[in-house]
Amino acid sequence: MIRQDALLRSVADDIILVAGGAEMLDSVRDMWSKLTRDAARHSTHFRDYFHEKSWDERRSELMNKASRGHFNIDVATFGGRELGFCISTVMDGAGEVESLFVEECSRGRRVGELLLQRSVEWMRDNGARTMAVFTVYGNDDVLGFYARQGFRPISIMLVHE
Ligand SMILES: CC(C)(COP(=O)(O)OP(=O)(O)OC[C@H]1O[C@@H](n2cnc3c(N)ncnc32)[C@H](O)[C@@H]1OP(=O)(O)O)[C@@H](O)C(=O)NCCC(=O)NCCS
Asked: Is 156 part of a structural domain of the chain?
């Protein structure tokens, strides 16, 4: 469900970004599941971790962040059809792109770029002094996409199996 004051912005090529807060979370559940399957497919060492990650778990992590800081969801739509989404947060000046996904059939048409640019703008407007995104180790291709928008790798987190 989209809240009453959800921001509707016609941005380019008749793509409309629908923006809102945590109340929009359930509307991106299906796309989030596809994103997680994609993460499992790319992950070099933690395929099972992503396969087993549940929406309820992720939802409660995000609800928790929403209650402690700034929280935004953008859904890109075209003619009422959902093309992709981006979730962004800012906590204590630290901005984070939490999730970014574009439906496979809509990729390569700058929807991802549009969502990421809007996320950066929103994080800045909400006091972000740093902006970061975590990507799955093994999904090297996506690094080029992020580099074009000014995001470069700084460290690799190692997790004990
Ligand atoms: C990554 C993703 C969001 C990009 O969305 P998109 O709408 O296809 O990207 P755009 O069309 O805006 O791409 C802009 C540019 O980045 C390039 N690009 C996009 N995705 C890329 C990828 N995975 N690898 C390399 N380059 C990529 C495009 O080729 C394009 O460059 P060009 O102008 O030279 O052709 C989308 O591919 C996706 O949802 N992937 C699966 C989930 C994922 O990896 N999410 C990020 C997790 S952190």
From this structure: no
